[in-house]
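Supplementary notes for students who missed Thursday's class. We covered one full example, reproduced here. Read the sequence, then the structure, then the short commentary at the end.
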Amino acid sequence: MKKTFVLLVLIGLICANASHAVAQEEHGEKAGQKVEERHEESAVHLAARWVNFAILIGGLAYVLRKPMAAFFHTRRNDIITGLQRAQDAQASAKARMDEIEQRLASLGAEVSALRADADHESLLDREKILAEAKREVDRVVEQSRQEIERIARTVEREIKENVADQVIERAGNQLRTVMTQDDQNRVVLRFIKKL
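Structure (token representation):
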């Protein structure tokens, strides 16, 4: 309420000052005035204008003091907050940059370690594959050996049977040609006697 009253007084003074200035100009334009009166009046008017200006500035300062103080205080806090955020962002960026530089510095060691691991795993895989291949070869060799032995036994048996058949057949042929009917009867008799 008090501020509104002061603001109305200031507006009234401005209006009064403006109407006084307009009246002064009309009065100064009249052809019959003397230069001395004009000079005295202009000095009084000049002093009145400065007083009005000082009152206007004082009134505005009084009315706008708190809003302007709040505005400047808020603006100051915003600037301080912005500067703090910028410093935090700069510190964060520096920390990330340091971390990236450290990771880049250790990247060579990590690559070497990865290569060593890959070489080791490759060697283990190679040994594993060779061991599996050797086991497979041994298995195939053993199966082949067993198959060969089986085939050899079969062939040996067939050969023995063939030889036996041929021996029996030759013996039979010889016996038929060498043995007569009497010889055959004697052999049968001996056999019966033994029984």
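Commentary. The two ends are 159 Å apart (CA to CA). The chain has three helices and no strands. If anything here is unclear, bring it to office hours.
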